[in-house]
Amino acid sequence: MIIESPLEMIFRDLFYRLRSFARDHDVFLKLEGFNVSGSIKVKTAIGLIEDLERRGIGRPHETVIVESSSGNLGIALSLVCAIKGYKFICVTDSNSTRANIRGMELYGATVIVIDERDADGGFLLNRFAAIDSILKSDPNAVWLNQYANIANKNVHAAETAREIANEFEKVDWVFVGAGTTGTLAGVSERLRHEFPKIKIVAVEPTGSVTFGGKPAKRSIPGIGTSLRPKLADLCNPDHIVTIDEATTVETCLSFVRDYHLLVGGSTGAVLAAVHQLAAEFAPGEIIVAISADLGDKYLDTVYDPAWVKNVITPQGNGLAGE
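The structure corresponding to this sequence follows.
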């Protein structure tokens, strides 16, 4: 294969068959971490920018793109904006890893890091306040707003869901981590049309408020929110599974041992949710789970025993040494 642009490096039909992962059931893990920029968010980034261009809002070398991201979308937008000729400002927070921030900067982005938590224990409200300040000070600045932008949902209905439907004659369960809920909304919309009996499972961490949970401090980026995104209104999942961060870490570590692949933090939560609902799977059912990214971005967090001991299990329960 010869490519003309890094944006052609999207692997749409890559599924890892996890044999007997959920009791006697195989699980098909859709791997998005091999895409350029390292995650599913490159699809989101392209979709959001191309939507602006179709509407005549995005003008290369003039429009300044602004977005809030804890890592993956920020990196993807940094790449897409560099290729398409846009200045990009990413507002992130102290949960973002140094590797993510440096990756964005190398692609040419300006990165603003918010250190102060808001009243709900998260950073999102303060990130939004910083974006509002940028919009007021720069008339060329445009906020993509991945949390409410229908283009976020549409790209995953058109692409991610279609990729799943093309691979399987039927799908009975699909597990999706809930962050902005763009992937969840898009996948559920199209797959319900393709497979009317499918069961959609939304996975979020303890401390996320997306589906009515009590707000609390969260430390693993890429999943969950401290402010319910508007796109969540379009999801209507059949099941909502909440996973605590210690279980997420434990699942990531056991997955490396048993299936020999480093997966990202949100994938650990998704796989833990699959285990939690395994008793409900009927013989012969097809179970698909979406892995948004791989674990290389989490070597200093999820896969670092010292970080886990200090941040996830501050009282120490043995997990960090497992």
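Confidence is low (pLDDT under 50) at residues 315-322.
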